[in-house]
Structures are given as structure tokens and as C-alpha cells.
Specification:
Blueprint lengths: L1 E7 L5 H14 L4 E5 L5 H5 L24 E4 L2 E5 L2 H15 L1 H7 L15 H25 L9 E5 L3 H21 L2 H5 L4 H8 L6 H21 L4 E7 L5 H14 L4 E9 L7 H20 L24 E5 L8 H11 L15 E5 H4 L1 E7 L8 E6 L2 E6 L2 E6 L7 E9 L2 E8 L9
Parallel strand pairs: 1-5, 1-6, 2-4, 2-5, 6-7, 7-8
Antiparallel strand pairs: 3-4, 9-10, 10-15, 11-12, 12-13, 14-15
Helix pairs in contact: 1-12, 3-5, 5-9, 6-9, 6-10, 10-11
């Protein structure tokens, strides 16, 4: 399922751009679902007045929690919200039920659904569950259409995410949680589940029940499924910023964080651009400052002032691909309703089609053993700066830190038998040099 994740600088109009993107895609003939994480009612303001009376999509895909039933606000455009409170309460009840024997032994009282209030971080888990649920619904609808059924489900999903730093941590969460679960419950411990009933009788205390292990297994499957969605070629990110003194730097940091997690940026949206050439001195000064910031933003994205906006090209010297910058005008007020969104949808443009398949591995190993006696691991980190980088080798893993973002990367098998000989950042890529360890490297006979 084609999926576009909208994030960017805080306060830059991400929700408005997400709504305009979804509207443009729906007008292009694709059945589009706009999914929002916003609880403050920003989406209600954007679509007010909502136009046609909301009508729920008449299929089984009008799923319950973790997302609200989608409502149709325009032809081929549905909107839904992530239902975090309902999702949190249902998951809490499920975990308590599976851990009932342990809770009873400890004399603990279960938390009733009526008194449960979601904890910090629940939004992230609800979003991951919703992504999986929407993609499963799309797969079922596609199978029904292939069997001759009526057109149902959606072709494109547009997700209105939080600001970039929070969104990047959220996109890296499935991998991090999966790693933690494997540490807490390794495979050898799961393999000993058959002994638990006997151990419980000998020790006189309950041990985690089979259903609790099944819960851990289900969590691992869910996390792996979300990772497959995020890592698909059909999933891209759009960054939104209002050109200003700090916009280029903020977007550079966001691009580096997204690249660290293997996410692909398909466009940068320069939002709320003021008209140029005004006779009003104040407006002319503000517009001039904005145009200077826009030029800096274009240069940071690898595009000059005259570069095409809707295509991407390789930068000279084989560097990172230039990112299209799309300009969205300021409408003079906060957009409200489909009439205001129309011109913005024209400026943003519809979502392009991309194959739903696993993305190619971004990290590549270059064999320089014959010439230099080295293997070079190339890690694309578009937007990263040398002073923000940190590397730590930990066993068979490489801990990479870019600014405020961190990722633990498992080393390819060949590099595990090597020692780190150095690293350098060049043309948007971190190149880590590895020298074979004579104690572990196979000798020539």
C-alpha cells in the first residue's frame, strides 16, 4: 500500500499539508485514507466546514480500535484518527489476563478499564498498531477486488505524524523494541517453556504462563510486521517547513535522522510562502527574508533555484539524490474547508505510485582487500555533519549516533571478523573502514 508519512518542523503546518496531499491524491482518482495522530482538533479546523456529510466506509475495514471508523469528507477521501485511549485499555486488559496467575500470586489487583489512563508513549504504540491494521485491511480489500469484488479499501495512506524528532524516534521504535524483547526473552529461554509446569510444582510458585509467552511472541510478530511496512519501497516521508532562519538546519538534522533509520524522503514542502514583489515595505521585507531562507533550503536539498521541483536526480559525483522542493503559498489565513485546501492541493500534488516491495539494503560493503587490505561499509547519511557523528563498536554491532538520534546496526558477517580501522564522512555517506583480524580471518592455503 502506498504510504506517505508527513512530518517536519513543529508549527510549520504539517496537518494542513497532510490534508492537502490527501485531497490532491483523492482528486487524482486514488482512494485515499488520511490518518491523524492529532488530538487537538487541528484536522477538524482544516476540514471545517466538512463539505459532504461524513459517511463511514461500508466495509469490514471500518475497524474498531486502534483507529476510529473512517469518514468520507470528499470523493475518494476518507479521514480517521488513531484511538489511543481505547487501544491502551484493550491492550492493558489483554496483558493482565495473560499474566493473571502471576498477579494472583503477588496479591496484585488488576486495573479496571474504567480507571485506566494511557501512559506516556501510548500514542506511539497505537500508531504502530494502526499502521499494521490499515495495511492488513488494504491487503484484504485488494484480494477481494482481484476476486471480482467491488472497489473497497484504499490505494494510498497519508499519515499526519508529530514533529520530526518525535516522528524519527517513532519510526525507529519497532526495531529498538524488537531488540529489547530478544534480550529480555531470548530464544533459548522460550525453548524451555515445556519445563515450566514441573518447575512451578517443585518451586511452589507460579511461573509465566504459556499465554504470557504467546503475548511476547505476538508483540515480536507485530513489531516485525511494522518494520516491514516502514522499510517498504512504497513508504516515503515528506518534510514540511516554513522557510526561516532555522528551517534549513532543522531539516538537515531531520534528513540525517531519517537516513539513519533507512527512511526515504521524497519531497520537502516549503509552506506558507509570502508573495514576492509587494509594494508594502513590511511584507516585502518579510518575503525577502523568506526567499533567502528558501534558497538556503534548496541548496541544502541539493537543488539550485532553477532545478525542477517534481523530479529527483543524482548529485554530481555520485552523492545523495537531490530532494524535490515544492512551494506552497500562504493563503492569508488558516485554511478551512475544501475550498481553501484546493489551491494547496494543486501546489503539493498527488502521491506518485511506487511498488510495494522490500526496499534495497541501503548499507553496502565495498571489497578493497586486493588494493588496500580493507573492507568499507558505506552508510548513506544524507544531511549528517561530521561534528554530530559518533561510532562505537560493541561486539558484533556498530552503535551509530547522528546528533540526537542513535541506531544499533548489526555488522554483516564478513565485518564481524574485522577490526575498525577508521571512518570518514564524504558526499552524504559515512564510510567505515574494517581491517581483517588475523586471528579470525581465514588464511589462504
Amino acid at each position: 500500500m502506498r504510504t506517505v508519512l508527513i512530518t517536519g518542523v513543529g508549527g510549520s503546518g504539517r496537518t494542513t499539508v497532510a490534508a492537502a496531499t490527501a485531497l490532491a491524491t483523492a482528486r487524482s482518482g486514488q482512494r485515499t485514507l488520511l490518518l491523524s495522530t492529532d488530538r487537538a482538533g487541528a484536522l477538524d479546523e482544516v476540514f471545517h466546514p466538512a463539505g459532504p456529510a461524513p459517511a463511514a466506509e461500508p466495509t469490514a475495514e471500518t475497524a474498531p480500535a486502534p483507529w476510529s471508523p473512517p469518514t468520507e469528507l470528499a470523493p475518494r477521501l476518507w479521514v480517521a484518527r488513531i484511538a489511543t485511549p481505547e487501544y491502551f485499555r484493550s491492550e492493558l486488559a489483554a496483558v493482565q489476563e495473560r499474566a493473571r496467575s502471576v498477579l494472583d500470586y503477588l496479591g496484585a489487583n488488576a486495573v479496571a478499564a474504567e480507571e485506566a489512563t494511557e501512559l506516556p508513549g501510548a500514542d506511539a504504540f497505537a500508531l504502530m498498531a494502526t499502521l499494521r491494521a490499515v495495511h492488513q485491511a488494504a491487503d484484504r480489500a485488494a484480494a477481494a477486488r482481484a476476486a471480482g469484488g467491488p472497489p473497497r479499501g484504499w490505494d494510498v495512506l497519508v499519515v499526519d505524524l508529530p514533529p520530526a524528532p518525535e516522528a524519527i524516534r517513532l519510526l525507529g521504535l519497532p526495531e529498538q523494541l524488537g531488540r529489547y524483547l530478544r534480550r529480555l526473552l531470548p530464544a533459548e529461554r522460550q525453548a524451555s517453556r515445556a519445563l515450566h509446569p514441573m518447575l512451578a510444582q517443585l518451586a511452589g510458585v507460579p511461573v509465566p504462563a504459556q499465554r504470557l509467552y504467546e503475548t511476547f511472541g505476538r508483540w515480536q510478530e507485530d513489531l516485525a510486521a511494522v518494520r516491514r511496512i516502514v522499510e517498504s519501497d512504497a513508504v516515503t516521508v515528506r518534510l514540511v517547513a516554513e522557510p526561516g532562519p532555522l528551517a534549513a538546519r532543522a531539516l538537515r538534522a531531520a534528513r540525517a535522522g531519517l537516513a539513519l533509520h533507512g527512511c526515504r524522503v521524497d519531497a520537502v514542502i516549503a509552506n506558507r510562502l509570502l508573495p514576492v514583489g509587494s509594494a508594502d515595505p513590511w511584507l516585502a521585507a518579510a518575503s525577502g527574508q523568506q526567499q533567502a531562507a528558501l534558497k538556503e533550503l534548496r541548496e541544502a536539498c541539493g537543488r539550485g533555484p532553477a532545478a525542477p521541483e517534481h523530479t529527483a536526480a543524482e548529485a554530481p559525483g555520485g552523492g545523495p539524490a537531490a530532494i524535490p522542493v515544492r512551494e506552497v503559498p500562504h493563503v492569508g489565513r488558516d485554511p478551512r474547508g475544501l475550498a481553501d485546501l484546493g489551491p494547496l492541493a494543486d501546489a503539493v500534488g498527488p502521491v506518485d505510485a511506487r511498488p510495494d516491495r522490500p526496499a534495497a539494503e541501503p548499507w553496502t560493503v565495498e571489497d578493497r582487500l586486493a588494493d588496500e587490505g580493507l573492507l568499507v561499509w558505506r552508510l548513506p547519511l544524507d544531511g549528517a555533519e561530521r561534528d554530530d557523528l559518533s561510532l562505537v563498536r560493541r561486539g558484533d554491532e556498530l552503535v551509530v549516533t547522528v546528533g540526537e538520534f542513535r541506531r544499533v546496526l548489526p555488522l554483516p558477517s564478513a565485518l564481524r571478523r574485522c577490526t575498525v580501522a577508521g571512518a570518514g564522512l564524504h558526499e552524504g555517506a559515512l564510510r567505515v573502514r574494517f581491517a581483517p583480524d588475523p586471528r579470525l580471518w581465514p588464511r589462504d592455503h
